[in-house]
Amino acid sequence: MQALRAAAEAGEAEAQFRLGLALAHGGGDAAEAARWCEAAARQGHAAAQFNCGLLAVQSDPSAAVRWLRLAALNGVGEAEACLDLVYRDGALPRTWEEADTRASVALAGSDPQAPKRVRLAEYYVDPCLDLLVRRHRIDRDQAEEIVQQFFLELEEPLAKGGHRGQAWKQALRDGYQAERGAFRPYLRRTLVNFARDWMRGRRSAAPAAEPAPTPEAEAERLAHEWRPLLERFAATVSAAQPAYATAVAAVTGMLGDGATQAELAQRSGRSPRSVRSDLRLGGELLHDWLGREIGARSAGGRLAEPLRRGLELLPEWLHFPSADKRAKCLLLLALLARAEG
Length: 341
Fold this sequence. Notes:
By secondary structure, the protein is mainly alpha-helical. It has 3 domains: 2-92, Serine Threonine Protein Phosphatase 5, Tetratricopeptide repeat; 124-205, no CATH class; 216-340. Helices cover 73% and strands 0% of the residues. The protein has 18 helices and no strands.
């Protein structure tokens, strides 16, 4: 044991792992055993990473996922099954990040020479359902039918034409990059467009009164009008007040990309509290900038009153942003763009 401890203190990962196991199984200090095991895991020792993941499942599911993922990527076959159980038991929410984790682990364990499996898309079913329910305001049963049809088409042989899911199928087969999340935004856009085409086809097959477009759908349709105005706001305010660049980036990221506070924090490397402060300041800057633009360009015009009313409601929309409130902000920008035209 003394020789083992000496080797562990010298920094040998295998010795650190074995010392941790010896202390754990020999009735030693559990905290010390965990520290030695984690020290080996941080040096890339796959078995130690697996053990750290198992120890953290109950107390810290997020940490368990990090260690189990590393162990799986380093060749520990049991880690992938344990990782799947963590999510299946509901210890963590089924999110886009969770789907990326599970898909990248599954891909790492497959033959690198084999074609990329479209079946990896199955990991994305739950976040895809949430996206459709929120974006198209449909019930979950209808969303499940659309997602099932989408993935069924992805499994079919590639063919020219057809739904736009074909393009994502080709992108997935050409090279899946879960670590970078390179295809995730493309998947979301493709699925939303696929769902819109699918619902239009159903409506044409069974004539019925078409529902009024949602604010989110209208904002997406008018992106060519509000996006240049949002970019002009960012360029103008950032140039005039460089100290407010992060606040401008936060509010334009939330409006233009639909990014959440958590995504903005991860993207900028700032704390969630800092991002919330940035969003508040960015909202004030946007409100003031729009006020000047509306006053200068639409006074007396037929759109003057809707613009004025929208400007009054803008602080409320930006205070606790949601998909609906984000869409209303973008529609206000599109309205101003029309007033300028």
